[in-house]
Structures
1.
Amino acid sequence: MTNPYLTKVFYFNAAHQYGHSDWTDEKNTNVFGLDAKVHGHNYTLEVMVMGEVNPETGFIVDLGHLKEIVETNVINILDHSQIEKEVDWFKGKQPSSENLVQFIWEQINSRLKGAKLYRIRLRETPTIFTDYFGKDSNEV
């Protein structure tokens, strides 16, 4: 029998700016377009876990435990921040959704008990989202 998957949704708002300080404004604009200016998003974060159903509770994971991990280690850090300036992990990295999902995975994975982190999905806009399944599953 295959283990079920459970997804919990979270929301946060954050700003970011793409670019390199050692590039000219013109080069940053040519490469990153309007995203070379500070702008923000209303992010939707989906955290999907998998595991065996506990026969006593009927649950894969204690949702209070999952919520506490995500709120403490992700939402409270990213919400209303300017990501590349306020989150140390992003020093030297672009604040893209591709990098954000890796940061979020690292913040949750080692702290999660009783279930396995399966997927992070981060919706940046209604038409753009990034999925991440962990470092080992993405070897290219």
2.
Amino acid sequence: MTQFFRVMGEVGESFDMVEQEFLATGGTAVVLTQVRARARATGRELSFPILQAITVEEGLITEVRPFYWDTRAIADACAMPTSTD
């Protein structure tokens, strides 16, 4: 989790989890999150859903597997346009 938020802080100027739905059974939780973000490199804003499968053992999060719907849109928003010179 620490690494995820560190990377999001480097890539994103803002990264807000605006809406979340949780489903938990036993040691597994599934979280659907609606994110609003602004890319630091480009200033572009985007909104996208993330689905996360989270494993909890002895009260601690041991694994988070994020699934993004449109990774191309996220990559495009974060990338600076290349020069055609």
3.
Amino acid sequence: MSTSTTASVSTHILDTSVGRPAQGVAVQLSARPGREADWQALGGSATDADGRCKDLPALPEGTTHVRLDFEVEPYFLKKQADAQQDAPANRDSGATGVFFPEVAITFAVNPGEHYHVPLLLNPFGYSVYRGS
């Protein structure tokens, strides 16, 4: 049993369209001490080569809700540009942009518990879950 008075959060991103970690995605962490409280931006990080954010800020004491904001548009735009450069003959029908430019995940936390929240991502959908 943990004796910590704050919760902790970690995340990683898997690009399910290629079966690999999503590197270089900016992730912002916010928290609030109750449903009616204002969000407090705590800072952020970016995913490493394994798709993990290893240096997200600590949560303040009294945190009851957490929000992770994933900026996925730059990741997909870079991926599209790399694909067109590598194989211009295999371009799709000219579609540009990103269907989900941002992903915001909000969840409740309890003091002393760790919350690992992975993001499974592809160009036209995403899924999250509480991991371990």
